[in-house]
Design brief:
Elements: E1 3-13, E2 16-22, E3 27-32, H1 38-48, E4 64-73, H2 77-85, E5 95-103, E6 109-112, E7 115-116, H3 119-129, E8 130-133, H4 144-154, H5 158-185, H6 187-203, H7 210-222, H8 224-239, H9 245-262, H10 267-293, H11 298-318, H12 322-388, E9 395-407, E10 410-419, E11 427-428, H13 435-448, E12 457-461, H14 469-483, E13 487-491, H15 495-500, E14 503-512, E15 515-522, H16 525-536, H17 541-551, E16 561-563, H18 573-581
Parallel strand pairs: 3-13, 3-14, 8-12, 12-13
Antiparallel strand pairs: 1-2, 1-4, 2-16, 4-5, 5-6, 6-7, 9-10, 10-11, 14-15
Helix pairs in contact: 5-6, 5-12, 6-12, 7-11, 8-10, 9-10, 11-12, 12-13, 13-14, 16-17
Length: about 575
């Protein structure tokens, strides 16, 4: 076996004061009267594998309860990797020591190989070492990932699974390369943004100082009609035939000439008036010319407005001044030129990612095809095992649900579905309510998957619920079959199951010094015959004879023992190492 539980020690847990149990490989049965405390053994394992514990489980009068176990492993690399991630010491000489203390007051503590750890680490170890099959217990086969892996093992699809995982890793590597390029260059969005900036600024044809001239032209164009009106009015006021300044100047000139003929001293006044008249004529001529240069062009005004609005938009986006906009366009152009080489690299990386993705999907399709074939064969085999266990017309199917995106388990996930009675729809295995049904379905699955199941220790709690007669014999046969490749512990009330075990232990509840306590003792020889006779209905000669018949051919492994001494010492590292070497 790849791994097994070598020893289990329980101290001050419920009715157990001190118990040290050394186990052998194969199938071991635990029996005893109802209420004797068999569940304490199962409870101790659950606590040791990370289940939360109430302080009430500590034996009355004790300050704490302790549970300690030694597992031996042929190959420790997988477990050591988990321990290393959790900051825990690795296994030594193939030995894995788990210890947990439950305090009556305050917090308890837990250790792996002497190193303190969290409950989560114990739980993770539990999923790899032990399957506890009982009411509301953790069971690895309820995990869809575990179901998918078991289907792959059964379907002999592990090479396809490995090929898929390699393709998925290659795709992840290609995606990281693309993301690194994008983080360096800003990605395709950044390049597109630079292209847009350069195109927008370049197409505007900007020039420094253009905005001031543009505003002046716009101001003039928008007031052209008013300018023509004002200049025409001014000319009219100066050159009106009746009231204009020109007529007044002409009349004044005649008067001054008459004045000069009478008095020579008035001649300078006439000269001044003649200069004023000349300037007036020039002013009128200039105003007429100015009015003629002004054109009323609605199209030009619209063009000017559009140009002004364009410049305002560019300043708002890239400004605040037109000079800033021009500088931004030049800088963006330089960046775009620098990133042109990155674009080619990104295109190559994108192509590589697309090829890796195509390879991954191709590998996933190949894996899925093997799974579909294997699901049919496994379903048929499990139905056969269920029939042997009393489910004459039970339904069992394996559904493959496609994932939105291929994940670590492929493009689909397996779901084991079961219907115990004809006419009922199949439901996910984890939805089964009856503990007896769960246990027998698990036994059927474990038997069908015995060669593929990598969990070394299987613990069944009263798998015989509502079972008897011929079915009990078949349950016992399958337990023995499982024991050939796994370490199997079974708490049972069935004499057929107990007799099929390679070793049998009996839980006894007694009163000592006025206190009730539970102990565990190995039974063999006449003691075992008497215990199986009790399970058959009473210790009578006929029951003993029947028990002897059941036990015929069963060989008890050497070295199985149990100690109930109050003074037993805790497992030490040296003892654990010694047990591992055994």
């Amino acid at each position: 076996m790849s791994a097994m539980l070598r020893s289990l020690r329980i101290r001050n847990l419920a009715l157990v004061e001190e118990l040290e149990w050394e186990l052998a490989a194969g199938f071991t049965a635990v029996t005893g009267e109802t209420g004797a405390g068999k569940s304490v053994i199962l409870g101790a394992l659950k606590f040791l594998l990370g289940e939360r514990a109430d302080r009430g489980v500590v034996r009355s009068g004790a300050t704490s309860a302790g549970i300690e176990a030694l597992f031996t492993l042929d190959e420790t690399s997988e477990i050591d990797a988990l321990l290393e991630e959790s900051g825990v010491d690795p296994c030594q000489d193939g030995g894995l020591i788990l210890k947990r203390t439950i305090a009556a007051e305050g917090a308890g503590r837990q250790f792996i190989n002497g190193s303190p750890c969290n409950l989560s680490v114990l739980k993770e170890l539990g999923t790899r070492l032990v399957d506890l099959h009982g009411p509301h217990d953790h069971q690895s086969l309820f995990s869809r990932r575990e179901q998918t892996l078991l289907l792959d093992r059964f379907s002999e699809a592990l090479p396809e699974r490995e090929a898929y995982l390699e393709c998925r890793s290659a795709m992840a590597s290609a995606r990281r390369s693309l993301e690194e390029l994008d983080s360096t260059s800003g990605g395709e969005d950044r390049i597109a943004q630079l292209r847009e900036e350069v195109a927008e600024i370049t197409s505007a044809g900007l020039s420094a100082g253009e905005e001031e001239d543009l505003n002046q032209r716009y101001k003039a164009a928008s007031n052209s009609r008013r300018l023509i009106e004002l200049s025409a009015t001014a000319v009219g006021r100066l050159d009106d035939e009746e009231l204009g300044a020109t007529k007044a100047l002409a009349e004044s000139g005649r008067l001054l000439r008459d004045l000069g003929r009478l008095d020579d001293r008035a001649s300078p006044y006439l000269e001044t008036l003649e200069r004023i008249t000349g300037d007036m004529d020039s002013l009128i001529s200039d105003l007429r010319d100015y009015a003629e240069t002004i054109e009323v062009d609605a199209g030009e005004l619209q063009q000017l407005e559009e140009r002004i609005n364009l410049l305002a938009t560019l300043r708002r986006k890239y400004g605040p001044t037109l000079a800033d906009v021009i500088a931004r366009g030049e800088e963006s152009g330089k960046q775009l030129e620098r990133l042109s080489g990155m674009t080619e690299l990104r295109a190559a990386a994108l192509k590589k990612l697309e090829e890796a993705s195509a390879n991954m999907h191709k590998a996933a399709t190949k894996l899925g095809a093997k799974r579909r074939d294997g699901a049919k064969a496994l379903s048929k085999r499990v139905v056969g095992e269920l029939t042997d266990l009393g489910f004459k017309q039970a339904g069992f199917e394996i559904r493959l649900d496609a994932q939105e995106e291929p994940g670590p388990d492929g493009a689909e996930m397996a779901e084991f579905l079961f219907a115990p009675n004809p006419g009922e729809p199949v439901q996910p295995l984890r939805s089964i309510a009856s503990s007896g049904e769960i246990s027998r379905v698990m036994l059927a699955l474990k038997t069908a998957l015995a060669d593929q199941d990598r969990i070394p220790l299987l613990v069944f709690d009263e798998i015989d619920a509502n079972v008897g007669g011929e079915i009990a014999t078949r349950v016992a046969s399958k337990m023995s079959e499982l024991g050939a490749g796994h370490q199997v512990l079974c708490i049972t009330h069935l004499p057929q199951v107990a007799a099929a075990a390679a070793a049998q232990f009996m839980v006894i509840k007694s009163v000592k010094d006025g206190r009730t306590e539970t102990t565990l003792s190995p039974v063999d020889g006449e003691e075992r015959i008497a215990e199986i006779a009790r399970m058959l209905g009473g210790v009578t000669d006929s029951a003993k004879a029947h028990a002897s018949t059941l036990l015929k051919g069963v060989t008890e492994p050497a070295g199985a023992s149990s100690k109930g001494s109050k003074g037993s010492k805790a497992l030490s590292d040296s003892k654990a190492s010694k047990g591992a070497r055994k």
